Amino acid sequence: MPAQRLSAPWVIPVTSSPIRSGAVLLDDVGRIVAVGPDQEVPRPPGVAQEHFPAAVLMPGLVNCHTHLELTGFAGQVEEPAFPAWIRKVRALKEVRTADDFEEAARRGLAQCFAAGVTTIAETGDSGAVVGALHALGGRGVVYQEVFGPHPDQRDEALGQLQERFAALQDVAGPAIRVGVSPHAPYTVSGPLYRAVADWAREEAIPLAVHIAESHAEHDLLQSGTGPFRDAWDTRGIPLPEPLGDAPVGWLDRHGVLQAGTLCIHCVQVGSHDIALLAERGCAVAHCPRSNRCHGHGDAPLGAMLDAGIPVGVGTDSEASTAPDLLAEARLAAELAGLSPSSALALATSGAARAIGWGDEVGALARGLWGDIVVRALPDPDQDSPDWVVRAVIADRTPVLVTYVGGVERYRDASA
Fold first, then answer.
1. Is 319 in contact with 287 (CB distance < 8 Å)?
2. Structure pTM?
3. Cβ(294)–Cβ(267) under 8 Å?
4. Is the pLDDT of residue 319 over 90?
């Protein structure tokens, strides 16, 4: 691909102060070689240049938790109780074909590009999102889910996961990492958790888990009661062992909490849980709008950040709430009393760090990939850096162009 130079009235690097009248220079592999004031960024002969006269350049957004394979399920799951909601989603998935999942994944990824999202952390079991990322030129990590609540399912489930993982690795390219995700304590036994976690640690495979999301999950692990217990009794599944732990502690007992484990949701957590997550080097995917949609409550985001836990926001699935990453960042900022710049970090640099991509994306800096979003500014002559960041977070800046590694993946007709 040819090298290129982009410029605009404002550049938001995220990890440094906004730049008035700035530019970004990309090399011929799509990495950033210079970013700064327009007059200081080189103009090499023969390099294509594009100036956006009423816009801001910023890093592509990083979505810490997606279910793009569920695109199209919006409005189809109206169950108010979380266990019933999960059963309904499972029923909808069972009637989808492989082609359906592929089409849903591609449509969801195209929506990401149009919203300025360039990197995703996808969790699912169809494998369709790996193919969509490869075909459409996206970036991210895809965690292949595994299920098996009965301890006797451990060996078979692990073997199937390993086969599926190997097949997805054959499809993935340099911009796509494949991970694994033992789904949640109400769908995965303790022995299966330990087996998957041990394998992931031995092979340095990214690991993600849904954890501490609902009160029903907490009741199952703490006392063996509640709607998940009722469902297990119906299927002849023995209770989790041992009982008495909160969800985070129960995962740790089974070796799941390790450096880099992405813990999704983490709503039902206390100070001991947060300290344990920090001690083990885990990260958190925070989905505040989804949490509220299901009546789970609000995660203690401020306490997690104070503990030094890497946190990024995610949109979850269309079955929960309409995907809008900046809306997640705004609500997260409201919950934790964050500044606009800190809120933006939850959807860029902080999110990239949470999913293990912090050295590659999430900011505009020399050496990082040229994942860049051009957003229209309502008043490009403003002289306040704070105003520009607030305008982005408030979503008053429509996406004009989205680049992934310097390659254009979306362009609005008005750009």
1. no
2. 0.97
3. no
4. no
